[in-house]
Each structure stands twice: as structure tokens, then as C-alpha cells.
Amino acid sequence: MNEIFTYDVDVTWLENRKGILKSSVLDEQIEVVTPPEFAKGIPGIWSPEHLFVAAAVSCFMTTFLAIAEKSRLEFIDFSCKSTGILEKKENGLMISSITLQPIVKVPDDSMIEKAQKVLELSHKSCLILNSVKSEIIFMPHIQCDDTVSNNDISR
Asked: Which helix (H) or strand (E) holds 141?
């Protein structure tokens, strides 16, 4: 792929520790603030830290959906919990790890192995996960009626 794509996002300061994120190609704007864990932080509004983790988990989901479609994986449901850990390192604060816990529900046992392969390929192919230096902890779960398969994969 030799194409180059750009994604322009602008931020405008509103007041205190609050701003508005917007893009000329998107309809909605997002309020963004310093999180409440920091001085003058505001609870209940998206923070850069939330958006960072959201970028990882939403990219993983869209990658999974594309690979599942191409692989003709039949699945009933997909969801993914994610948690970012912020901690002080020698170079300052950073999101040191992001844990992704996808859950894929498949219609029958015959899809479990294929679902596992699609999840693993999605984990390896996700462009945001490949673009961050945070440790990615991958803990996929595949459900089929009463059967659950748990596998932990880290990179």
C-alpha cells in the first residue's frame, strides 16, 4: 500500500482545562478535558487518556470486522473491554499498557478455531496497536452456547 492518508483533527480551548475536538470531515465534535486524577481535572468528559485507549479498542474492532468478513467468519456478537494503565516511567507519564478483552460469540463449536484465528490476525494487523509503544495485553474469549475458550496473548 503506497497510498498516504491524512486525518486532520483540530482542538480549540474553551475554558479552564476544557477544549473541543473537531474535524472538517466529521459531523460531531467531542469535548475533551484534563481527567479528574490531575489538577483541575473534570470528571464525566472524555480525556486524552480515554481517547488514546478508545483509538486502540475501536481500531481493533474495525480490524476484526474486516478480517471476519473477508474470512467469512460467522459470529453472533462482538464486544471488547479495554483498560489503559497510566503510570510514571523514567521519561515521564505514559500509558504503559492497554488490555484488550474481546468476546466473540459464535453460533456453534465448528466456528471456535476460525474465530480464534481471526482474533489473533486482527490483533497482529491492527494499525493503531502496531503504532503505539504501550504493551498490548490480549485476552480473547470465544463463546459458543455454554462453551467458553479463554486464551491470553501478550505482545
From this structure: strand 141-144
